[in-house]
Design goal:
Layout (H helix, E strand, L loop, with lengths): L2 H6 L1 E6 L6 H9 L3 E2 L5 E8 L2 E6 L20 H7 L7 E4 L6 H8 L3 E5 L3 H13 L8 E5 L3 H6 L6 E6 L13 H11 L5 H11 E10 L11 E4 L3 E7 L4 H12 L1
Parallel strand pairs: 1-2, 1-3, 5-6, 5-8, 6-7, 8-9
Antiparallel strand pairs: 3-4, 9-11, 10-11
């Protein structure tokens, strides 16, 4: 496909389907056009046999689809250690949910998770996946909210939040630990998350217990005063404790020695 042809394509569209009203409803909700041929858009939302997926026309990329049932019990050990709090249930706010894989893992171990995603196409993919998802064991829960992270932090009705989690996409890095195809499609939709340090500062002012920031293993920290750090093979989790909380202050030594 030559450059002129690519420029003529719609950025994102919804593919129509015979005898299926879902594409029209989805397009109306997202303010996107409905097309009869996938090739007329750079990216197309398509209702496949196993759920809503995002396809890239003319490129050898596997369609992007969220399936929480495929997230195994293995993996995420460092994330769970970084987010750990003693008292449950605990409310956790994921400010940069993306495909919500980490949000699901956290909900599965008992957090009451509020997952915030500002990009409407990504939000639609996750929303569709939640309708097909297995039941979470109590007290875990996952609520998806379509809003900007800063607006969420400023919301008067947010209520108390024990843990805030950040996994922002930064210039030249991309969201951590995603397969390359997912990262490529996500970057096309979202661009880069600017002002990460500012977002961290806002999060620290709202979290009752701790803020957890996911970073590429060798990337600079968003703030130099992380209290804890849990490292995996490709990523690490910087933890900023609210030491004004007696529970967090007393758990610091246990976290370090765990």
């Amino acid at each position: 496909m030559n450059g002129a042809a690519v420029d003529a394509l719609l950025p994102v569209a919804v593919l129509a389907a015979a005898d299926d009203e879902r594409p029209a409803r989805l397009a109306a909700g997202l303010g996107l056009p409905v097309v009869d041929r996938q090739e007329t858009a750079r990216l197309a939302l398509v209702y496949g046999p196993t759920g809503l997926e995002l396809r890239a026309s003319g490129r050898r990329l596997t369609p992007l689809r969220v399936d929480f049932g495929q997230i195994g019990s293995h993996g995420g050990t460092e994330l769970l250690r970084a987010a750990r709090v003693k008292n449950r249930p605990a409310r956790l706010l994921d400010l940069t949910a993306g495909l919500a894989t980490d949000a699901w893992r956290l909900a599965r171990v008992g957090f009451e998770v509020i997952a915030c995603e500002r990009q409407p196409v990504i939000h639609a993919l996750v929303e569709d996946a939640l309708q097909r998802a297995p039941r979470l064991p109590p007290p875990g829960s996952l609520a998806l909210v379509h809003t900007d992270a800063r607006a969420m932090l400023a919301a008067a009705d947010l209520g108390p939040v024990d843990v805030i989690y950040l996994d922002p996409m930064f210039p030249g890095e991309g969201r951590t630990a995603l397969p390359r195809r997912e990262l490529q499609l996500l970057r096309e939709l979202t661009g880069d998350d600017e002002g990460g340090a500012q977002l961290l500062a806002l999060a620290r002012s709202r979290a009752r217990r701790r803020v957890v920031v996911k970073r590429p293993l060798h990337a600079p920290a968003l703030a130099a005063d992380a209290d804890l750090c849990f490292k995996g093979r490709a990523v690490r989790f910087d933890v900023y404790l609210n030491t004004a909380s007696p529970a967090e202050a007393s758990s610091t030594m246990a976290d370090q020695n765990d």
